[in-house]
Task: structure prediction
Amino acid sequence: MDLKTMTEINAPAGYEQPLRRYLLEQLKAIGMEPVIDRMGNVVVVKEGTGENRKRVMVSAHMDEVGFIVTGATEEGFLKVQSLGGVDPRVIISKRVQVGDDKLPGVIGAAPIHLQSAADRKRVLGYGDVYVDIGAADKKEAEAKAPKGTPVCFDTPYVEYGEGYICAKALDDRVGCYNIFRLLAREEQFPCDLVAVFSSEEEVGCRGAKGAAFAQAPDIGIALEGTTCNDLGDVPDPLKVCVTGEGVAVSFGDNSSLVNRNLFRHTLKIAQEQGVRHQVKGSVSGGNEGGVMQRSRQGIPTIVLSVPCRYIHSPSTVCKASDVEDQFELARALLMSL
Amino acid sequence: MFDMLKKVLAPIGPSGMEEPVAAVIREELKDYVDTMETDALGNLICIKQGKGENPRKIMFSAHMDHIGFVVTGIEKEGYLRVTNVGGVGLKVAQTRHIVFPNGVNGVVVSEPVEGSSMMKHMFVDIGAQDKEDALKMVQLGDMAVYAPDCFRLGEHRVGSPAMDDRCACALLVKLMQTIGDTKDTVIALFSVQEEVGCRGAKVASFAKEPDIGIALDVTGWGDTPGTTQPEIKLGEGAAVKVMDRGSISNPQLREELLECGKLAGVKTQREVLPYGGTDASSMQTSRGGIPVCTISIPCRYVHSACEVIDMRDMDAALKLLQTYLAK
Result:
């Protein structure tokens, strides 16, 4: 189990099977008994030691943003739409893998020579781009990649600079990686750890919604990758969080205002245990904290995120130290619940 | 009623931090209800058991939270950068006095801009020398609201921030204090996080499984210069909601409530709101679904620092609801 292998597996929203297969294998290898629920979530319960112990659901989503084939042109190019939020400005000329067989493809658009002055000022949308898989015509394209075939960024995992990682799908393989490590530790927690590797977060937290209802936890912790906006001329106060400055603890985002007591408790634990952390300075985005918080009769939730630059793009960048800090804080928090 | 209104308007309670409001209400209702509990999200749920055979469970919801601002960053000169919690209008927020739960005061200001200000142009001046000084007063994630300022306007009217929805909290407290024994079980839900999407009412409805849900909230107005919609006038009675963007009221329940207004001898107005939503939306779609309606207090300048209501509409709503429960 390592981040490289995990990020290089293709699992766009709704098509998580390859990652699910890998996780099942890895979880069984460490003696766990994972189950797959009806939404395709992988759920593992690690029992705790406390009396009257709480059920703490820790979720990280398996799925990544990607594309789905919606048709083919007469010339044999695939038309696609995004699965989850992908800015069409960041995808032109990127390499992709199409379908289970990972057919190589390139996202194409009219080259600069063929664009009018007006075209150059216009932002290209999904109507303007296509995926070139080298098919000779519509028939070949449809045979190789029928409608509904998933498409993923083709990005190798690289480490560079001082502890930086560049890969696709760091949002949220970092969370999946850390949940796996929490399960793999011999250490037992006082609470029951209900680990959920969820499906379809990028299209509306659909997997976690089902899992939170079915598992009926007492507390919810989402492990996420989040935007950081720490580059260029962004003034300090407008930065969401900063890579290398530790796990980001959210006070709230568009999906939930986190439970204030749990928020304060989390910051206290981080301080006591000396885990590097930062408070996420923006109300933006949403995540599984929202669906856990408002499942059934409601539960306290908290969101711990790894800051990610260029999130939802083919090349997302995070810092290995922040991944460690997310793990350490989740571990310390579970020990305290 | 005015004294009760003043009491529940006083505490600071932005969305997600409603406990100070709950504390006031708990004190007011402790001798009037059978059970009182606070759930994981902070909803205060007070229940008065019905005395009839097979009592129905009727849930009334009034939200405790108030729109506000949350600190997202601090400039090195000590100014705060903020974003909205709930629907804050930037035009009406300019140079307003806001206050944090710890007592720190601030003024909301916009940088000079061409055209309309956006949230990114706004900052809060808390009188700090620099960032270090500011951090002694507030931290990231702290929330502030328009500073309490309750005043009378003419003979019948009252202005204050947080009138949305503390006037309904006062109404619901009064209702619980005055209904005595009822045939049906009455669940008074003082809900949280309505302003960010009726989140509290969603989980409380799941937990309590009511048979009927009635949200108590404010509504808009159409009786000042330049306004026509919604067709609602202050002082013309309690508004019985037909629909808004969040829910369509159950027609039978709506007519029953209008009828109760008649029986009580109070004025009512039918309300069709082309925007907004109330806790009724969350109650309606909980579990297998329940009939809902909203009783609204007409309120001018909603979501500003001076939200104005007419006390005669409060009294009309109270009498209507008392009649409904006495039937």
